[in-house]
TrEMBL record, chains A, B:
The keyword Disulfide bond does not apply. GO terms for biological process: polyphosphate metabolic process. InterPro entries: P-loop_NTPase, Polyphosphate_phosphotransfera, PPK2-rel_1, PPK2-related. Residues 36-258 form the Polyphosphate kinase-2-related domain. This is Polyphosphate kinase 2 family protein. Keywords: Kinase, Transferase. GO terms for molecular function: polyphosphate kinase activity. It comes from Nocardioides albidus.
Amino acid sequence: MSFPLSNLTSGLRVPPGPVDLAAVETDAAPGFDGRKKDGEAALLALGPELADLQERLFADGKSGGRRSVLLVLQGMDTSGKGGTLRSTVGLVDPQGVRITSFKAPTEEERAHDFLWRITNALPPVGLIGVFDRSHYEDVLIARVRSLAPTEEIERRYDAINAWEADLEAKGTTIIKCMLHISADEQKARLLARLDDETKHWKYNPGDVDERERWSAYQEAYEIAIERTNTKVAPWHVIPADKKWYRNLAIGTLLHDALRSFDLGWPKADFDVEHEKQRLRDEKPL
Amino acid sequence: MSFPLSNLTSGLRVPPGPVDLAAVETDAAPGFDGRKKDGEAALLALGPELADLQERLFADGKSGGRRSVLLVLQGMDTSGKGGTLRSTVGLVDPQGVRITSFKAPTEEERAHDFLWRITNALPPVGLIGVFDRSHYEDVLIARVRSLAPTEEIERRYDAINAWEADLEAKGTTIIKCMLHISADEQKARLLARLDDETKHWKYNPGDVDERERWSAYQEAYEIAIERTNTKVAPWHVIPADKKWYRNLAIGTLLHDALRSFDLGWPKADFDVEHEKQRLRDEKPL
């Protein structure tokens, strides 16, 4: 039995207007009729086609094409940005991927405009870039913790839209995803980390303090998504309590973006028969 | 039936002294008794342990450790540097890997010492860096095509040894591999690319011209390997006509290097029970 993925992604795209995250069920699996094992099988089945599409993008980039993909992953701690990456991006050739994890900005980075370090991390043509956190931190944590003046935060929404529009115009398809988990699910995941000695290194007591600001973060996400939910770079809110659904949804978004390029293989810019003859006529080396 | 991998890598390590590449069979599978299907199965079976060891290295790097791995892949065109990467490095979390493909240096790169761009591409602590071509091009193609004066090439062998020794001392384990194919195998692979329209983008007529310098390249490799075959950063010559053997050999070298670190999981630097209690006592968000 196979489960069609064609309806999966359309429901994840955020419609224009105000955003109400509380209205999006975090443990749902919209657009997919199957269960966990079906979802996992569907993602694995997508693997070879994802790998093929990624190689076409890479080949296009090596042959004068200007396209690239930028997958932006945002979400609260433990929402599974790293796990998504392993499960979906891990299906394609690692040479075709450039992953950047954004931490708190360094002193040098803070001395520049907030988009400076982001621009430096953009994927070259032909590659899939993945941002684990991104420029959106500069309107999320920056807003919640007042790391920048209100006017500066306001300016940033517009700056992001202009920057993303420019990027799209130059050939980069941007896929923006918010991995949406509930506060209860985060609590369960933090407790699971504490219960597992091999996961202690991932745990940070500060993450629990940050939970007190949960609703402020949700509000900051709602505002950020509404203000930057443009036609060229729309947002997707991914129900992420179910890891298998989260992975399948993002794998499908990546797949759909790559397939939309409709890329053939680059044509030879040399005489194929002549080259064969040269090799066959070669003197012994 | 299982095939032990413990004897596979020792025979690939180049002994000190002069190097005779012609004496190394390119289509052999030293140290492995099985056939193609056995070799492919053995590499896949290595996958989960490789992934586990890579995650331990990553966790160590996040917890104050200084270790990293640098896998250097060198070889003639079509020797399979990219394929090796896909098959071996593709088995671990892409977030734990940093891949750099070195092309002809840019004007800016040429304005610096040859090790400048190499140093910039080194893996951060906790990561596996992979070089597809490397600083060795500066004593290989540079020697064959006289891109630098003889004295400069001579200087570079010593500079490489000093640089690699420094790197090792700082915590980076260096695995240097020459993927060794025969001229006939290269010819067959080039012809196969010409026969397959989906591979034309990988073909460059200049590669055939370069074949006329085959023996000069082999000699340049022999000299480079002999001069830089140090105790801290020894060379491995990998018979690479058989793709499955090449992949298995390099996967095993990577595995052995990671396992030699003997890394446990980082201990918690916080009170685990206290953290559990805080989460359980939390007021509703």
